[in-house]
Specification:
2 domains, seven-stranded mixed beta sheet, alpha/beta, Rossmann fold, single chain, 31% helix, Metallo-beta-lactamase, Chain A
Length: 449
């Protein structure tokens, strides 16, 4: 039994791990590389394994860096079943269709090649099979179980037991403590080997209790200066977290009603999916909806699905709040709003998610004063703020605690899904604090279990 790491090795994106037994090959995630200068090239490289020989694909959650190359996998010959939780199946389709739409626009505007065709998406979804938490699935000599990761809606970590007695878990992405609507990350069972994410493997998030007060402070400042608050948000989870907290503050009179535009067709669709599956909510969210309250709606909220509706936001009076994608600001409607509003000191940009190196979001997060948006040079005068506690990823403290409180300590840990500094730092902490052998594997590295 062995694992080969084909993505998210000493970088955050491109998750793709191949588990091989005596007779069975299982792929865990098949994500797109994002952010880096070579990412486009890396996405087009032929898979370094034969997709037609893979028996099954397990998807931990519906973020593009975990699902983005599934249609390419199908294009290159994969015909196995694809397993994910029911919400993940629906959300993945939204994400992949949106990604293809962006690819088509890039192809028409700049003649950039398509990574796959729409028919490859359709063929992939013919083979998707919903698998709920804690239901055992037999694939060859492997028994597979999904557990709640608490990262985004429907997210999971994967525990796999072999008939030879060996076991491994893949964390996928683990959630941050204090997330609204989501349940807490489930306890890790006793496994021999753990492959764990390390996005924030060298960082500690700010206290979640200060999150809502900081959001309130930024919104009230926007209202006072009759400005515009622009929030680039990932369509799945981060957007709904913001809507949930704004709903609570507006309905309890903490904030005045303020025109708020959810300018993201994908986020609007994702929110509808979340409303379909209340059985995935935490206890607080269930109590709220039992009173008849809509978790993600409040006075002043407007949904702008069409392009013409989006353009009309320009003419809306200030103050106003605009929530739009993409979360790292490298594409999507957010770029039009940044070009329009970054140059005014009365406006604010609120960053609430991870910003990969090489993205516009990373430049703004690092305080760059002149940026290029849609080919225009923009002098940044708006306030650039960030709230780390909105991150959907566990920080170093949570990652260590999750492993420490497992039913039994793993015998070996591999730290992936983090830049080199974060992955190596987390591995060092596992060794020094928990006395568990750990390393940050390299691309293409194979380890025997």
């Amino acid at each position: 039994m062995k694992i080969t790491f084909f993505g998210a090795t000493r970088e955050v994106t491109g998750s793709c791990n191949l588990l091989e037994g005596k007779q069975t090959r299982i792929l865990v995630d098949c994500g797109m590389f994002q952010g880096c200068n070579l990412c486009d090239v890396k996405n087009f490289v032929t898979f370094p394994f034969d997709p037609s020989t893979v028996d099954a694909l397990i998807i931990t959650h519906a973020h593009l860096d975990h699902v983005g190359r599934i249609p390419k996998l199908v294009k290159e010959g994969f015909r196995g079943k694809i397993y994910a939780t029911p919400p993940t199946v629906e959300l993945a389709k939204i994400v992949l269709q949106d990604a293809f739409h962006i690819m088509k626009e890039d192809n028409e505007r700049e003649q950039r090649p398509l990574l796959y065709e729409e028919k490859d998406i359709d063929l992939a979804f013919e083979n998707f099979v919903p698998l709920d938490y804690s239901h055992d699935l037999e694939v060859g000599e492997f028994t597979i179980r999904l557990r709640d990761a608490g990262h985004i809606f429907g997210s999971s970590f994967v525990e796999i037991h072999s008939s030879n007695g060996k076991s491994v878990a893949f964390s996928g992405d683990l959630g941050n403590d204090g997330a609204r609507v989501l349940r807490q990350t489930a306890q890790l069972s006793a496994v021999d080997t753990l492959v764990i994410e390390s996005t924030y493997g060298n960082r500690i998030h700010e206290d979640e209790s200060a999150r809502a007060s900081k959001l309130k402070e930024i919104i009230l400042r926007t209202v006072k200066h009759k400005g515009v608050l622009v929030i680039p948000a990932f369509a799945i989870e981060r957007t709904q977290q913001i809507l949930y907290e704004m709903n609570a503050m507006v309905e309890h009179g903490v904030l005045p009603p303020i025109d708020t535009y959810l300018d993201s067709p994908m986020a609007i669709k994702a929110t509808r999916v979340m409303k379909k599956y209340p059985q995935y909510y935490d206890a607080e969210a269930l109590r709220t909806i039992s009173t008849g309250d809509d978790l993600f709606d409040f006075p002043g909220l407007r949904l702008t699905e069409t392009r013409s509706e989006s353009i009309l936001i320009n003419d809306a009076p200030q103050p106003k709040i605009i929530i739009a994608g993409s979360g790292m600001m490298n594409g999507g409607r957010i770029q039009h709003h940044l070009r329009r509003y970054l140059s005014s000191k009365n406006n604010s940009l609120l960053i609430i998610g991870y910003q990969a190196e090489g993205t516009l979001g990373h430049d703004l997060y690092e305080g760059k004063k002149v940026v290029t948006v849609l080919r225009d040079r923009i002098h940044v005068k708006a306030h650039v703020e960030s709230i780390g506690a909105y991150s959907a990823h566990a920080d170093q403290r949570k990652l260590l605690r999750w492993v420490e409180t497992a039913q039994a300590k793993p015998k070996q840990i591999y730290c992936t899904h983090g830049d080199e500094g974060a992955a190596v730092a987390l591995a060092t902490n596992f060794k020094e604090q928990l006395d568990i052998p750990a390393e940050a594997p390299k691309f293409g590295q194979t380890v025997e279990l």
